[in-house]
Write a sequence for this structure.
């Protein structure tokens, strides 16, 4: 049963690859960024609270994101597997996820870490042009990634779940490399 987490800085291609892979594997693609953007566009209580953080490129407070993901992972379609994209984003979220999965008798098989040089990321995101894709906000998101999300590499390395893939290649090539990684058994 595929249960995978995509890690990596903003713009490395997590969303792009997670969505393709989820379709191929027939499991839900659960992107906290997409869920939060939907909440913002519907102006739900969560969306109103989250918007200012997202506009600045900061992480939305853990309690908001954690309850959102808890609900999502308990839905019927998540019981046959899932791909998480953008969660966890810090060590506190990773600890909560570990406890949540244990309580649901679920286990994540692989944590897929895409790597892309910083200047390539900035150009990709400027080209995409989402509301939070201005250069100042992108640089802040990258700083937040270094400070808060990068420590997750050591967290998952210690659990022998981490697989690192070069994301600085055409989308098809990255997808192919991911496929090969998933065919290999865990270390
Ligand atoms: P996200 O939606 O996760 O946005 P992101 O990190 O920028 O990555 P995304 O997945 O969208 O982009 P991708 O790399 O696929 O987060 C947005 C905000 O939500 C955060 O800043 C934060 O405020 C909040 N948030 C989300 N999760 C949270 C959490 N757990 N806790 C707290 N806050 C949270 O793609 C980027 C671009 O590159 C695309 O245009 C794509 O087409 C292109 N691309 C992809 N692969 C490529 C390739 N191989 N070659 C060339 N271009 C490529």
């Amino acid at each position: 049963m595929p249960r995978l987490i995509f890690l990596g800085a903003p713009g490395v291609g997590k969303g792009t690859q997670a969505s393709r892979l989820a379709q191929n594997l027939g499991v839900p693609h659960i992107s906290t960024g997409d869920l939060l953007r939907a909440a913002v566009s519907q102006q739900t209580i969560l969306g109103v609270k989250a918007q200012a953080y997202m506009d600045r490129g900061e992480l939305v407070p853990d309690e908001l994101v954690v309850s959102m993901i808890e609900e999502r992972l308990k839905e019927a379609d998540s019981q046959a597997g899932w791909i998480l994209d953008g969660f966890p984003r810090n060590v506190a979220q990773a600890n909560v996820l570990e406890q949540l999965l244990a309580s649901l008798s679920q286990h994540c098989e692989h944590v897929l870490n895409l790597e892309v040089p910083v200047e390539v990321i900035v150009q990709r995101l400027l080209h995409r042009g989402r509301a939070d894709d201005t250069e100042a906000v992108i640089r802040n998101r990258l700083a937040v990634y270094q400070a808060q999300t990068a420590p997750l590499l050591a967290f998952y390395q210690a659990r022998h779940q981490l697989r690192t893939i070069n994301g600085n290649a055409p989308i098809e090539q990255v997808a192919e490399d991911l496929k090969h990684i998933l065919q290999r058994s865990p270390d």
